[in-house]
Amino acid sequence: MVNKEEIQNQIIQAVETVRRTNPLAGSITNTVTMNFVANAQLAVGGSAAMVYLPDEGEFLAKAGGATYINMGTLLPVYEETLPHTAKVLYDTGKPWILDPVAIGIGTLRTQLLRQFKDYKPSVVRGNASEIIALAGLWGLDGGTDVSNVRGVDSTDSVNAAKAAAVALAKWTGGAVAVSGETDLITDGNLIVFSQGGSHFMEKITGFGCSLGGVAAVYAAAASPFIAALTSTAVYNLAGNRAENKADAPGSFQVQFLDELYKATAEDIADNPLEIEEV
Ligand SMILES: Nc1ncnc2c1ncn2[C@@H]1O[C@H](COP(=O)(O)OP(=O)(O)OP(=O)(O)O)[C@@H](O)[C@H]1O
Ligand SMILES: Cc1ncsc1CCO
Ligand SMILES: [Mg+2]
């Protein structure tokens, strides 16, 4: 039997531990949304640091409680930085979050994402099309050979990524979070649907990226599954609240960061979630 109350207690623990301990979660992430990722990490109580170079990725992997890797805007140096950092994370057993942004574009991205299969990210976070394409690239159930990602955007529904998400979580032994109007989080045994958020989140770039960065902050203090659930829940809660205070995307983003900062552990745990067994 699934104990929802136990999951909610663990969410509360994760939020409180992060606010008390200010864990470092380093990132190698895209240049479009880097600032938003760092600010969201700080708003929930974490500490942020962004780097590009191989030895600096290794340094943060070892120094931080968890690491965020986002493939958004690849640079030549990432051919060395990303596999090097991911291997250090895997070898040291440190949690790491992979956001396979724009999977399908270019050969370096494909090559790097293929390599990550063996370094088993603790949380894979992406929109539905990215999750389906990654399962396809790794030869897992629910995946497709051809990416339906349109640039960085999804063309698939969250539900269409269910089998891929479960297969990825079973492969990594961690968790997978699929974002969309309703979010889906799985550890391969349970599937949780998290409600909330706002349509404005599609009108500002980086809500997905920053969600991944926040998941890394929580992964420094909780299991991958609870980290994925907690980050998704606080995003849905803060998105709802910000929508009530803003009437356009720019002011929404400002209100959202404030609500991320203000959300209590209990309110985050109480954000609507539905649980089913795989
Ligand atoms: N229509 C919507 N209604 C409610 N919440 C939404 C909606 N669309 C996205 N969200 C929320 O926005 C956040 C980011 O999800 P999204 O699927 O847009 O990520 P993404 O496509 O990877 O974004 P990006 O690549 O721009 O960072 C999640 O918390 C998700 O719940
Ligand atoms: C728009 C964009 N392009 C590369 S990364 C990024 C941020 C959203 O994923
Ligand atoms: Mg994205």
UniProtKB/TrEMBL annotation:
Record function comment: Catalyzes the phosphorylation of the hydroxyl group of 4-methyl-5-beta-hydroxyethylthiazole (THZ).
Source species, domain of life: Bacteria
Reactions catalysed: 5-(2-hydroxyethyl)-4-methylthiazole + ATP = 4-methyl-5-(2-phosphooxyethyl)-thiazole + ADP + H(+)
Organism: Desulfosporosinus orientis (strain ATCC 19365 / DSM 765 / NCIMB 8382 / VKM B-1628 / Singapore I)
Recorded family membership: Belongs to the Thz kinase family.
Record pathway: Cofactor biosynthesis; thiamine diphosphate biosynthesis; 4-methyl-5-(2-phosphoethyl)-thiazole from 5-(2-hydroxyethyl)-4-methylthiazole: step 1/1
Biological process annotations from GO: thiamine biosynthetic process; thiamine diphosphate biosynthetic process
Pfam families per UniProt: HK (PF02110)
Catalytic class of the enzyme: transferase
InterPro entries in UniProt: Hyethyz_kinase, Ribokinase-like
SUPFAM superfamilies, per the entry: Ribokinase-like (SSF53613)
Cofactor section: Mg(2+)
Nucleotide-binding recorded as keyword: yes
Protein name: Hydroxyethylthiazole kinase
UniProt keywords, alphabetically: ATP-binding, Kinase, Magnesium, Metal-binding, Nucleotide-binding, Thiamine biosynthesis, Transferase
EC number(s) on file: 2.7.1.50
Residue numbers binding substrate: 50, 206
Binding site for ATP: 125, 179
